[in-house]
Design goal:
Elements (H helix, E strand, L loop, with lengths): L4 E10 L2 E2 L1 H10 L4 E3 L12 E3 L12 H6 L2 H17 L11 E6 L5 H11 L17 H5 L2 H11 L5 E4 L5 H14 L5 E8 L4 H9 L29 E9 H6 L6 E10 L12 H13 L9 E3 L6 H15 L8 E2 L2 H4 L6 H15 L1 E2 L22 E2 L4 E8 L3 E8 L7
Parallel strand pairs: 5-6, 5-7, 10-11, 10-14
Antiparallel strand pairs: 1-2, 1-8, 1-9, 3-4, 7-8, 9-15, 12-13, 14-15
Helix pairs in contact: 3-6, 7-13, 10-11
């Protein structure tokens, strides 16, 4: 019999909210957290806005040594992981540590510290040959993204499989999908999984400036992220992390854990088409959605809410809308769809895991998060994108999707477990 996988713990660091309770309140309020960049001097950049986390590592319980040693992305992961473990009540001991693993997603790894180190070693770019004597003793940790998984293992005490998944903007979603597969196949009984990202740095902002992917609406940052709106002009870069504890369901029930939702299906596809481009028909994303639904034996008509990728770029919105029509059929027109990136920006490899937390909260508390800033719907897009205001309604099954540069397309299905809460 196939082992079933459930979510028993969650932790979040997001723009506008740290902690799951504050995050849920932000979603219900439809409150945006996009603003002018304050993490560095962005004067001269095309896009000077972002969704930043109000985050003080010392106030969040990190030691002074760890606050100095860890990249901002690693700091986010540590804080989110501590909350998720406390929420789950899972005890990792010497006897079960090898049956608990870690899978973390990140698109750009420890970019902040890497860039700072390059600036220091190259004399702000003036030296072609860098001076290694100026390097931090922790440079290797910044260089290899696997350090994010290693740090999470140390926090959790996990001694099972450990990996970092880096698949662009689907990384956080793919990391959770990988974790579920390890549980289903019997390799582990529980996984600490999610995604983390701190990409609001000069080099990352410059990269997206170069391809004009981000919004230049610098005079109105609060309303700059406008998925599905006719006046959208690019996404708003974000940051943050989400960690989930996922477990084999019978084991979770035996210890009377609180169960937020069951993850019934996951699938990923590639479009093998273009590094940044998307086919307008959305066939490859539709294939991932159909495969995820099939894995969980879920009919399209059972989907109560779709957590969209919703970046606020024209090609993504058209691509997603077509994909939902292909995969859900006529039910797509009756299904509420929204993008929380309208509130917290696009945190690249972390956003998929943050959206999984939002999906689990939608099931737990019976609401559909809104698409903020959707005042002028694009007439080309004819589905229900839940403008401006959250909806209170029963949510039993959620489909959440991700799309990433390189052609990555991923989908996950979450479902309520009757009587699952302790």
């Amino acid at each position: 019999m196939t082992r079933r996988v459930v979510v028993t713990g969650m932790g979040v660091v997001a723009p506008g909210s740290t902690g799951v309770k504050a995050f849920r309140e932000q979603l219900l309020a439809g409150r945006t957290a996009t603003r002018a960049i304050s993490l560095f001097d962005a004067a001269g950049y095309r896009s000077r806005i972002a969704a930043e986390c109000d985050f003080d590592p010392r106030q969040e319980g990190l030691s002074q040594a760890d606050a100095h040693r860890l990249d901002r992305a690693a700091q986010f992961a540590v804080v989110a992981t501590r909350e998720a473990l406390a929420d789950s009540g899972l005890e990792v001991t010497e006897s079960n540590a090898h049956r608990v693993g870690v899978s973390m997603g990140s698109a750009v790894g420890c970019t902040e510290k890497l860039e700072q180190q390059y600036v220091a070693m190259s004399d702000a770019g003036r030296r072609w040959l860098v001076d290694h004597r100026r390097a931090s003793p922790y440079l290797y940790d910044y260089f290899v993204p696997s350090s994010l998984a290693a740090e999470t293992c140390r926090v959790a005490g996990a001694e099972g499989p450990a990996t970092t998944v880096s698949a662009g903007c689907t990384s956080g979603l793919d990391a959770i999908g990988y974790a579920c597969e390890l549980i289903r196949e019997g390799t582990v009984d529980a996984m600490v999984t999610g995604g983390t990202e701190a990409p609001i740095t000069p080099i990352t902002v410059a990269c997206f400036d170069a391809i004009r992917a981000t919004s230049p609406r610098n005079d109105d940052p609060e309303h700059a992220s406008r998925p599905f709106d006719r006046t959208r002009n690019g996404f708003v870069l974000g940051e943050g992390a989400a960690t989930l504890v996922v477990e084999e369901m019978e084991s979770a029930m035996r210890r009377r854990a609180h169960i937020y939702a069951e993850i019934t299906g996951f699938a990923s596809r590639s479009n093998a088409y273009h590094m940044t481009g998307l086919r307008p028909d959305g066939r490859e994303l539709a294939a991932a959605v159909t495969a995820a639904l099939d894995e969980g034996r879920t009919a399209p008509r059972e989907v109560d809410y779709v957590s969209a990728h919703g970046t606020a770029t024209r090609q993504n919105d058209i691509h997603e809308t077509a994909a939902f029509k292909h995969s859900l059929g006529s039910h797509a027109y009756a299904t509420p769809i929204s993008s929380i990136k309208s509130m917290i920006g696009h945190s690249l490899g972390a956003i998929g895991s943050i959206e999984v937390v939002a999906s689990a909260l939608a099931i737990e508390h019976g609401f559909v998060p809104p698409t903020a800033n959707l005042h002028d719907p694009d007439p080309e897009l004819d589905l229900d994108y839940v403008p401006l205001v959250a909806r209170q309604q029963p949510v039993r099954t959620v489909l959440t999707v991700g799309s990433g540069f390189g052609g990555f397309q991923s989908a996950m299905v979450l479902r309520r477990v009757p009587g699952g809460a302790a």
